[in-house]
Amino acid sequence: MDETSPLVSPLQDSIDYNYCQSEASGPRTPGSVVRVSAGSPGRSRERQPLLDRDRGNSPRDPHRNEFPDDPEFREIVRKAEQAIEEEIFPERICQGSSGSYFVKDSQGKVIGVFKPKTEEPYGQLNPKWTKWLQKLCCPCCFGRDCLVLNQGYLSEAGASLVDQKLELNIVPRTKVVYLASDTFNYNAIDRVKSRGKRLALEKVPKVGQRFHRIGLPPKVGSFQLFVEDYKDADYWLRRFEAEPLPENTNRQLQLQFERLVVLDYIIRNTDRGNDNWLLKYDCSMDTEGKRDTDWVVVKEPIIRLAAIDNGLAFPIKHPDSWRAYPFYWVWLSQAKVPFSQEIRDLVLPKLADPNFIKDLEEDLYELFKKDPGFDRGQFHKQIAVMRGQILNLSQALKESKTPLHLVQMPPVIVETARAPQRANKEPDCSSLVGPD
User: Fold this and answer.
1) Fewest CB atoms less than 10 Å from the CB: which of 111, 116, 296, 362?
2) Which parts of this chain are annotated as the region Disordered (predicted)?
3) How are beta strands 231-232 and 277-282 bridged, if at all?
4) Separation CA 243–CA 20 (nearest Å)
C-alpha cells in the first residue's frame, strides 16, 4: 500500500467554508432570503434568515442530503423529506431489536427503511426494551465484542458499497442520510427545545429567527431503498422443499445464493439468519391470448434475492469460539454445491486485482470516517479481517470448494501496514459449523 492510502497516512481535508454573496440592493421585505458574507463585520450565521437555512441552501449545512453520483437515490430521499414536511411521518417497525422506520412518500407509499444511529440495538435512544433488559439482567452478554458499537448504520451502507463494487446486485441501495421526524425517538430535552423554539418563532418572530434550527435535530442513519413483493427466505425455502423448483429456476436460486455467500463472507456478517434475507418468486402467466383460446402460457419463473439487515458486519476481530455468530445459510442444501463458474468469473478477477482492493478500502474509509467516533486503529482491524476473508474466499473459488467448505477454513487476519508479519492464523473454528 503506497503512502497515499488513507490506511497509511491521515487525510487532511482542507475545506474553505468562507463564501461571499453580494448584498441585495433595495429594501428588504419580510420573509425574503438574504445571504450574509462570512467575513462581514457584525454578521454571523446566527443572524441569517431561517428560510434559507431550513431549506439547506447554505454550503455549510452538514445535514444536507446530496448524492451527486446517484440522482435517483437523491430523488427518493427528497420525496421522503417532502412527505415529512407534509406530516406523513415514518412508521416505526415493530420487529427487530432497534428503532427502524418505514419511510413513506407523499402518497403514503413505503419507499425506504431508515435506521438512526442513536436508536441502534446498543444506542442510548433505542426504543425497544429488550436490549435494555438484556443490559440490566445479563451485562456479560450485552453487545458483541467483535463489533464497533453504534456503527450499524455504517455497516449497512458499507455492505451496499461492497455489493455495488463487486456487482453482486443483491443489496438494496443504502446510504447515510439525515432525517428528522416527530415519530423518531428523541430525548425530552430535544423535544422541549423544539417546542420552545417554535413558540418563540410564533410569538416573537424577531427572536425566533435568530435560532440556528427550528424543529427537532436531524438524525444520521442508514437509508435503504424498499423492495416490494419480497418475503423472508425461510418462507420460500420451506415451500420449495414441498414444491421443488424447475431445473432452470433452481439454477437461478443457486446463483443468487452464491452471491449472498460472497457478500456475507467478505463483510463477515455476524447476523445472517434465514429471516433477514429475502426472496422474490415471480411466476407470472401470459394471458394476452386468453380471449381467443383456453390455453394459458406459463412464463419461466424468476427468482430474485435481497440481502437486508447488514448492520452487524465489519468486525474488528473474528468472533470468539463461545459466541461464533455462524452463517445460518450453511445448513442449507445450496451450501453443499461447489461454487459455479459464473460466480468465479464475476468475483475472482476483482479480488485478484490489488488496485480494486485498494479502491474498496479507500471507499470504505471515506464512508466510515463520517462517524463522529471514528477510530483509525479500529478501522485498520476491520480492514485486516476483511482482507483475510477475501484471501480465504479467493482460495475457495479457485479450488471450486463449496460454501460449507469455505466457512470451515481457518480464519485469517491480513495486516498490510502495521505488523511485519503479513498473515496470522487464528484458532480453527470449523467445529462451529454444521456437519457436511
Assistant:
1) 296
2) 20-71
3) antiparallel
4) 68
- Reply yes or no on whether the pLDDT at 197 is more than 50: yes
Alpha helices in 115-232 (DSSP H): 129-137, 152-166, 188-203, 205-208
Backbone angles phi, psi at 18, to 5 degrees: -75, 135
CA dist 254 and 131 (Å) reads: 36
Percent of all residues in the chain with a pLDDT value above 90, rounded to a whole number? 56
pLDDT level of residue 297 (50, 70, 90 thresholds): low
Amino acid at 105: D
**pLDDT(217) > 60:** yes
Rounded-to-integer distance, Cα 126 and Cα 103, Å: 18
Cβ 273 vs Cβ 345: under 8 Å? no
Place of cell 443504502: 174
- Cα separation of 109 and 106, whole Å? 7
- pTM over the 0.85 mark: no
Which residue reads 447554505 in cell numbers?
58
Q: Tell me whether strands 219-225 and 412-414 are parallel, antiparallel or unpaired.
A: unpaired
Is the CB of residue 311 less than 8 Å from the CB of residue 267?
no
For 358-414, write each residue's pLDDT tens digit: 999 999 999 999 999 999 999 999 999 999 999 999 999 999 999 999 999 999 999
The more confident residue out of 242 and 324 is 242
- Residue 50's nearest CA partner among 220, 202, 219, 190 is 202
User: Given the C-alpha cell 419461466, which residue does it identify?
Assistant: 300
DSSP sequence for 274-319 = TTSEEEEEE--EE-TTTTT-S--EEPPPEEEEEE----S---SSPP
